[in-house]
Design brief:
This protein has four domains: 12-56; 75-98 and 249-327, Elongation Factor Tu (Ef-tu), domain 3 (Beta Barrel), CATH 2.40.30; 99-130 and 208-248, RNA polymerase II/Efflux pump adaptor protein, barrel-sandwich hybrid domain (OB fold (Dihydrolipoamide Acetyltransferase, E2P), Beta Barrel); 132-207, Helix Hairpins, CATH 1.10.287. By secondary structure, it is α+β, with helices and mostly antiparallel strands. The protein contains five helices and 15 strands. The termini are far apart. A hairpin with a 6-residue loop joins strand 12 and strand 13 (284-292). The chain has a six-stranded antiparallel barrel with strand order 2-11-14-13-12-15. The longest helix is centred in the middle third of the chain and has 36 residues, at 133-168.
């Protein structure tokens, strides 16, 4: 091989130094990026240690909650603390203990309604008027028949008194006296029948005025003025309404729950409970087991329990869900 060929293959010192310089530049850049990444990540480490340290201190310094002070039956506005005095927790639905649907006693036309849904009512308050034109006419007819019967009795009594005096002097026969006496008794009985008919007609007139049977709230308004109503349905969905209003006492509430048969041994009549509505979990109410159904649901394997709420307030709304904790006896 010639000398010229060897010189061409030989690496020039300048090119060799340039390659080494590029290599060290790359190494320096990589080290710089690594140091910058460590510098950026470093502040998070003390923060993490500080949080872990504080969490550990909180765990070691935690003080068990003090026993709650005694409160009167009713709601508790403070957030409920963790308690271990319950043996069973089940969810159910808030219901009115008594829901009364006010119905007419006879077929009639609604003349006037004085309340609407949500109105508060008192016992004896006038709620609905049924058209009483026909029943007032019947009352007038019955009273007229009663007056006629009483006039007939008065006439028969005078006749009997005369015949009785004449019979005493043997002017009239005993037969005439007996006939006059029996006629008087028959017409007296007719007066009693007429009085009964008048009382019936008067009762129907009174039934045209419908009043509230309890202190409560109107849950539903089921009819409007000029609608036909009747006491019961004779079939079909397009017949007259069978109820006028639905009312209930908002201060008489219960929670209705279905208890699995495996948990029935933990519940007894009169057992104290703690009720918490799902809509307001920070509120609790005292309760007591008021009713245990006498018959189970075979299909579901449950028994219905009703818990009476003591001291309910406006936060409790019927048909909303609530959680019931059954307390240890």
């Amino acid at each position: 091989m010639s000398v010229d060929k060897l010189k061409e293959l030989q690496i020039q010192p300048e090119r060799k130094q340039r390659r080494q310089r590029s290599f060290w530049i790359i190494v320096i850049v990589v080290l710089g990026l690594a140091i910058a990444a460590l510098f950026i990540a470093r502040p998070w480490s003390p923060e993490k240690q500080r949080r872990m340290k504080n969490a550990g201190a909180a765990d070691t310094n935690t003080v068990p909650p003090a026993a709650s002070t005694a409160q009167p039956p009713g709601s508790t506005n403070a957030a409920p603390e963790a308690k271990n005095d319950s043996v069973l927790t089940i969810s159910g639905y808030i219901i009115n203990r008594e829901r009364i649907e006010i119905s007419p006693r006879f077929l009639g036309l609604v003349k006037w309604i004085g309340v609407k849904k949500g109105d508060a009512v008192t016992n004896g308050q006038l709620l609905v008027l049924i058209d009483d034109t026909e029943y007032k006419a019947r009352l007038a007819q019955a009273e007229g028949q009663l007056a006629t019967a009483r006039a007939t009795v008065a006439k028969d009594d005078l006749t009997y008194q005369r015949v009785h005096q004449l019979a005493a002097t043997h002017i009239e026969s005993q037969q005439s006296e007996d006939d006059a006496r029996l006629l008087l008794e028959a017409d007296t009985a007719a007066v009693k029948a007429a009085e009964g008919a008048a009382d019936v007609a008067r009762t129907y007139v009174d039934w045209c005025t419908i009043r509230s049977p309890i202190d409560g709230v109107v849950l539903e308004k089921l009819v409007n003025p000029n609608e036909l109503v009747m006491p019961q349905s004779f079939g079909g969905s397009k017949g007259p309404s069978t109820a006028l209003l639905a009312v209930a006492d908002p201060k008489d509430l219960q929670v209705e729950i279905d208890v699995n048969e495996a948990d029935l041994s933990k519940i007894s009549l009169g057992q104290k409970c703690r009720v918490s509505p799902e809509a307001y979990p920070d509120k609790t109410y005292d309760g007591v087991v008021a009713e245990i159904a006498p018959e189970a649901d075979r299909a579901k394997g449950t028994l219905q329990i009703k818990v009476q709420i003591l001291g309910p307030d406006h936060f409790l709304t019927p048909e909303l869900s609530a959680k019931v904790e059954f307390l240890k006896n």
